[in-house]
Amino acid sequence: MPYNHKTNVVLIGMPGSGKSTVGVILAKLITKRYMDTDILIQNHTGKSLQEIVNDEGHMKLRQIEEKTLLSVDCENHIIATGGSAAYSHPAMEHLRANGVIVFLKADLDALRARIHNYETRGLAKRPDQSFQDLFAERDVLYKKYAEIIVDCSRLTQDQVAEEIAEQLHRYQHSATITPRDELSEKLTVA
What we know:
alpha/beta, 5 strands
């Protein structure tokens, strides 16, 4: 489905990449509604993400997240997903059906500088897994699903939102022009 038929923008990336904050800024910038799937999980379960991990384990959080993502049915939204959303192929394909997947890529040093509560943040990770290992594991998944990648390591949140808006515009244009349209444009300009 070309972008012009997709009405949502889905933000994926590591914890600390700015999905939630950038999502709000982007929603204002390109006049869409905003949804944070971590908040949906907390509202549905009545627990924080860390409480779910503590009580039931990281795999239970991933199962709850997948179920929540598969239940998302909206249009014209910026959707900020949890950092582990990319572990679920069915959920990512569901979100991609009506959304452009944007990976907010931040390098390990930037993420470490932004995250001060790694052990209590409610991450869906193995108990023995380091942040560096989690980063390496997830980076591959984010790249697999991303249609647009924005390196946000050295940008402000406003700059990231502006870059996403620009890349969405370019993506929309490239997804809607067919060779026949290009020929018509050339003939009209000539």
